Amino acid sequence: MGSALVRGLARSGDHSVVAYDVDEAALDAVAEYSSETTTDLERATESDIVFLVVKPDIAPALVEDLDLSAEQTLVSFAAGVSTDVIEPLTDASVVRVMPNLAAATGNMAAAVTGGELTPEIEALLEEAGVFVEVDEEQMDVATAVNGSGPAFVFYLIQAMQDAGVDAGLNEDDARVLAAQTFKGAAETVLRSDDDIEDLIDAVCSPNGTTIEGMEVLWDGDADEQLAAAVAAAERRSKELASESAGE
Question: How far apart are CA 208 and CA 210, in angstroms?
Fold first, then answer.
């Protein structure tokens, strides 16, 4: 996720991005997208806005090592680590974000909670994609929907690709058709005020091909399985939150 963020912010060329990591290989991977890479933690915390993009189990200890002032903002991407855990460990204003991997291409979907969003932070998040502000107690389900969601969508794209290949399409052609179809459908949802059910109806001509396929989905349990996947991810996010809080 750290690499995706750096790549996303580098797209405009308007920012000075200092990337920090103890792993030189990780720094090499983002060097071309960064203004500077460093293994010096003090250098990495000189910016007005500091992004914390680490595994949740090490987030609290690392925050304690950061010498941040009240004039700085700490933006945490650590899954399951609430602002209640981080805020007592730093003087900085804390904003918690649950992003996703699409930040690298400027198509991130993110849920945000915590401190006041300054225009500078809003601008940074908008360069990486779109975000919605939610209450802290909604972050676990947001983690499941938009944080884990790309993997669920990749799974569905793979299933559509495989179905096309099994029916005779070239694998590369099936990949493009399946992926672009998801992309186009998502853009349609975002740009339309119609309910998704109405959008489905708009594609389904009476006695046509789409309605035949939809009947299979409506009669099956694909929606229940996807809901179960979201619930499992949400449950794990809550477990991570309990672990980070020492409960």
Answer: 6
The band of 44, judged by pLDDT with boundaries at 50, 70 and 90, is confident
- For the record, the structure tokens of 39 come out as 């293994």
- C-beta separation of 196 from 189 below 8 A: yes
- Structure token pair of residue 75: 């933006």
Residue with tokens 């500091």: 50
d(CA 76, CA 52) in angstroms, rounded, equals 5
Inter-residue contact 90 to 68 (CB < 8 Å)? yes
Q: How far apart are CA 118 and CA 110, in angstroms?
A: 16
- Secondary structure of residue 100 in the 3-state scheme: coil
Q: Please, where are the H alpha helices in the chain?
A: 2-10, 24-30, 41-44, 59-65, 83-86, 119-128, 139-142, 149-166, 171-191, 196-203, 209-219, 222-244
**Cα–Cα distance, 170 to 189 (Å, whole number):** 29
pTM of the model: 0.87
Q: How many CB atoms lie within 10 A of CB 207?
A: 7
Distance CA 4, CA 99 (A): 10
Give me the count of residues in the chain.
247
Contact indicator for 153, 182 with CB cutoff of 8 Å: yes
Residue 163 tokens read as 């179905």
For 152-162, write each residue's pLDDT tens digit: 999 999 999 99
Q: Which of 31, 159, 48, 154 is nearest to 100 (CA)?
A: 154
